[in-house]
Fold these 2 entries.
Entry 1:
Amino acid sequence: MKSFKVTEFNGPLTEVDMTTPQPTGSQVLLKVKAAGVCHSDLHIWEGGYELGHGRKPLSLKDRGVTLPLTMGHETVGEVVAVGPDVKGVSVGDVRLVYPWLGCGKCETCLAGDENMCIVKTNSIGIFCDGGYADHITVPHPRYLLDLRGLDPVTAAPYACSGVTTYSAIKKVEAFIDRPIVIFGAGGLGLMALTLLKAMGGKGAIMVDIDATKRAAAEKAGALATVDGGAADALQQIMTKAGGPIRGAIDLVGNSATAQLGFDCLAKGGKLVMVGLFGGGAPWALPLIPMKAITIQGSYVGSLHETQELIDLVREKNIAPIPVTKVPLTKVDDALNDLKKGKLVGRAVLVP
Ligand SMILES: [Zn+2]
Ligand SMILES: [Zn+2]
């Protein structure tokens, strides 16, 4: 099998040829059909996150990411071999890989929230090898979701950007009869816009500093868009909302978006922090109690939420977000384009 590995942080990926492993026990081997390129892959590739306030950057090496690593956590594959203990999937099945694995044994994992495991994170494509390859091994068939006819290329991003936005919107579900303010109109933002509508929401005011991305959001049906870099951005957001804002989702996660996301909220509002751009918290502490604001972090989503999302996509016949197919061998170009902010929608690698 062929894979493209990070062998040094920030360096070009290395093409590696090795014998295709045979699955043992409960393992399932899939031939990769599509692998989404996610913004968080840039952080893995770069080796960490900025934390702001002069703090030492959060190092992924310190958090247990070891090299060489095959990235790729948005993977769809066709089952080509199964271990002797596997039940429920057969050779030929096309499945979406749920990548947010934990230890699988603790209370949190057994409750179905492996993405929140506090014992050990085993996320596929981050802590073990993922989908930037022509084959992938998954430890158990329960992590393989039946796509039932959905297109592998456009469905791959549901494993990360899809379930991340779905889970974030569920956290402001009480407020979706009003406009929700969404920061960031890249791949996640367009996905959020689409899902919000499918979940019965009124719609979103999309904030982005990039005019191309704002145009894409308008085309995708945003209620309004605002340039987050404008001096009067806060005023524009509040005017365009036409009433008190209760829910905001920050898909960028820098000090500027977190500040605007907080400031635009009415009393009792909620800011859901999703983006991992980096920086320090900008909020004046007394305003958090005085406005009774909830600030909630949201990290990917559970296996159950991923299944709910796929069911929703099928039931509501949700149109896919724009994707650009990129040959697997051009993975470096895809990462560099993403880094430069040149991609609209999502790049999906196809072997
Ligand atoms: Zn991701
Ligand atoms: Zn666990």
Entry 2:
Amino acid sequence: MPISIVIDRSAAAPLYQQIAEQIKEQIAAGKLMTGARLPTVRQLADDLGVTRLTIQSAYGELQAGGWIEATVGRGTFVSQQPRRPLRAAAGTPPTAVHVIGDILQLSESSGIRSLGKASPDPALFPAEEFWAVLGQLLPHSAELAGYGSAQGDPALRLAFAENVRERGIDATPADILITAGVTQGLALTAQSLAQPGDTVLVEQPTYIGFLHQLRSYGLNPIAVPMDDQGVQPEMLERIAIQTRARFLYTISTYHNPTGCCAPVERRRQLLEIAHRVGFKIVEDDIYAALALDAPPPPAIKSLDRNGSVVYLSSLSKSFMPGLRIGFLIAPQPLLERLTSLRMATDLVSPLLLQRTAAELLKSGCLRRHLRRVIPLYRARRDALLAALALHLPNEVTFTQPTGGLSCWLTLPRRPGLQDLPRQMVEAGWAVAPGEVLWADHDGDLHLRLSYGCCRRIR
Ligand SMILES: Cc1ncc(COP(=O)(O)O)c(C=O)c1O
């Protein structure tokens, strides 16, 4: 179908914007299909009686927003993955479900520079080693075609038990349950430690996916303020006593979204309060392998002498999120309850992928991969922090992550800024709006910028 554009020279909107908007509308309505070729700059300029610069500006805006792709020598085409409208509607407070959906969608859209998703860069995955290991498992096909153990493949549990020694944790394969990522571990833990209506403590701000889980299980997340060393101990004690909370969920090592890392003394204080007041700590250690400056402090679990901590981690940030391989370590009899609930949910994780992960850990592939990618993530973090320092006014503050994948911005309360994430998407940048990462929004405006996939930052 030929492109149809009507321009209004008396309108306030500049000509390039009118043209870009009409092309967007036609793509969104399916009138211009994926892969359709757009007229050349010269053709369209002649047809509409405007300058080539006007068309170049319109195409530039569409390209930045992910609507079209230009290939030198071939032409300009409607993107293979054009963007759908954002689910978080303009002018209404975004919900966790909408924001998670938008972040995932935008990260797949070409032309969008994604600072929205706290994920490792798929272009860095060690694909060849992965497929080679999978191929080496061919002689074990018959064994790996079955369900395997409910607690998880013993070879993988052994590999994780060896791996967590680096975090100071002394665990045996019998202490470990393999899960479908930390997400499943958190789901099982939340349902085992609390009943609908119970209160659960979370850091302020926290991981959006867990807030979503808690609310969908009918649990009531209450926020505990943080400082630059993590959860504030006095506030934790006071709020835990007042609310009779069942557990504290903490990402103490390279926190998502702030990148903050609690020093060992703070970790001891949290444990001591948990033991004294009588609640559990659910420690999400998913970012610990992404230490960008210095080795991280030991896990809270490694300091636990009273069975207060459930420890969770996965290969999602250090390796590949698509593997869906994670694990948790919990004291008995809780581990037994968690295993039983896992069996009732989806029985087991695919044995072939568990064994592949075990081989990758055993062969040192994960260690080599981390040695290769950490300098790249460090450079991306440094570039982002330098750009923020250079371009943002002083009234915008931001954290200085020493690991993990995210940086947290606090903006002044100024009218018009609420819609900033949406405006940034229009300009070709995806970021996570901060208010959905708060259990109890403080009214400030925040953004989370994640640098893991930001290849274009220089
Ligand atoms: C703190 C935190 N925990 C858990 C997850 C999800 O982990 P998984 O992919 O292992 O389910 C994420 C993903 O962003 C995260 O940031």
